[in-house]
Amino acid sequence: MFVAWRDMLFAKGRFTLITSVVVLITLLVGFLTGLTGGLANENISAVQGLNADKIALANVAESTSEKDPTFSDSQITREQAKAWSQAEGVEESTAIGISQSRGETDGHSAALAVFGGTADSPSQDEEVVISQTVADDLKLGSGDTMTIAGEDFTVTDVISERSYAHTGVVYTTLTDWQELQQRMGDPDSYATAIAIKGDPADATSIDAEQGTVTANSLTALLSIDSFRSEVSSLLAMVAMLFAISGLVIGAFFTVWTIQRKADIAVLKALGASNGRLRADALGQALVILLLGVGLGIALTAGLGALAGAALPFVIAWYTTALPAVILVILGLVGAGSALRSITTADPLTALGSAR
Amino acid sequence: MLTLQDVTLTFPDGQSRHTAVNDVSLTAEPGTVTGITGASGSGKSSLLAVAATLITPDSGSVRIGDVETTDLSPSQTATLRRERIGIVFQQANLLPSLTALDQLLAVGELGPGSAPRGERRTRAAQLLDQVGLERAHRARPHELSGGQRQRVNIARAMMNDPEVMIVDEPTSALDHARGQEIIGLICSLTEALGTATLLVTHDLDFLPRFDQVFTMADGGLSPGTAAPPLR
Ligand SMILES: Nc1ncnc2c1ncn2[C@@H]1O[C@H](COP(=O)(O)OP(=O)(O)O)[C@@H](O)[C@H]1O
Ligand SMILES: [Mg+2]
Q1: Which domain holds residue A316?
Q2: Where do the domains of chain B lie?
Q3: Does one domain contain both A32 and A112?
Q4: Which of A218, A251, B164, B200 is the most exposed place for a label (fewest CB within 10 A)?
Q5: ipTM, interface predicted TM-score of the complex
Q6: How far is the centre of ligand 2, averaged over its atoms, from the C-alpha of A272 (Å)?
Q7: Is B133 exposed, middle or buried (0-12, 13-18, 19+ CB in 10 A)?
Q8: What is the pTM of this model?
Q9: In testing the pocket of ligand 1, which one of B8, B46, B56, B89 has its CB within 8 Å of the most ligand atoms?
Q10: What architecture is domain B2-224?
């Protein structure tokens, strides 16, 4: 790194420029991932809160043009729920009702999701446990009363933030959920999904037999329509930014290396090994990347904390450290593409006047 | 000691090949300067490139001490150049980002097996003083005159205490008086450090200062100054 360090200090302008580009790309990636994480949480935290190992949905492939199952289309029957609860390797299986509705109190009204029959649900009918957003939106606390689809419920508890498809969540018993479905014009509903704990021995054949589709709980999140559409477009942007950062770093180092090819030839004539020259070039790239990405992530965290009040924004390892590591790796890959110019620099050109 | 025996080097030239060095034999003893003169394009730089292991000849033998260099891989010749050969380039070829002192220290960073940093620092400072750059240790190339750059170039070649020194037209970018100084410097360093020095020059005035003199013409080497240089 002897020459590499001094090059960086000497050509401050250039290296500041490329470091700034890395900072900005990192900021962009950090912001997008933070936002993606925030939007994702608003979509999925209630489903994650089920703490299931696997989730079974009804297979609607035959009846609709959609090929993947979705929470909004899924209808689980009593028979399907029973079959799953008796399946080998299943420790616990719970039929869960999920639907979207509105909640009202005197003077307030808000969209919400109703989750029936979960571990967070109240033990008695006509009671609800609500998530913080619902409490905030409807100005509710424990002991208050709220109305969903014309039916009154008593709030027994307020739990930390849970949401589903961008709305807060109200937990009811499965019976109450079914009754609400009936009021909303769907009298035959039994449940929407089955939350499974344990490791079913033969999920495939039960699925085939029962007309269900079982996925691990992470994959199942993709069956939430709004989550899939939002996250896939945002992640596509993030992926594009990753590619851009790799290409930008690669282009910078390719030009940089070609510009100093004469110097490289001199160093080789003096006896520098290819390995040492390559390590120096990668070291240089690593310094720029660590500096740029580090600064970018610090800025993301700072600005994200500020934006967090107005935007759904998540600051967690998977929105900071993970994209940072990916950016550094892709940047190094980009810089690696410039190494060829080092190998091909001919020390013979250092001799004579042809410089 | 540097020994070349029956060395021939050709370059591709259109459909055929151009013989740049034709069956050259030469021995350079430690502590002596071997001067080579000759017309432009006669193959002097090509001969130096072969002697400096920068290119492998088509045939013949090039030995540094008792190491036959024509059998070595590129990475082995790199090590050999690092450890046993000093090269003074025609253009000073200094790295723009480095101070004079760093130009010399960089030589120790090119590969494994160099002396401890403190030792190298002392040697680099001594060498710069020896070539008359006591006051320019911290100057970068753009802050140095042509003659001063050439002095750094020479000091750098001496940094790894080479057995063989290869010098290509060190005075071509300098006026005659500066040229005299540079040639004098190379001759005194050769004596002081006991290197076998192979030096190419256009300037016939310098020839009396060398221990032996050859003339190159059309790739062939002959003793003395038979052919007057063109240009
Ligand atoms: N890398 C090369 N590729 C092809 N031809 C070369 C190369 N280097 C030198 N030559 C040719 O070899 C001949 C000798 O060149 P050179 O050794 O540079 O001569 P000098 O140093 O005496 O001026 C010239 O005709 C030159 O064109
Ligand atoms: Mg020449």
Answers
A1: 2-43+228-354
A2: 2-224
A3: no
A4: A218
A5: 0.93
A6: 23
A7: buried
A8: 0.79
A9: B46
A10: 3-Layer(aba) Sandwich (3.40)
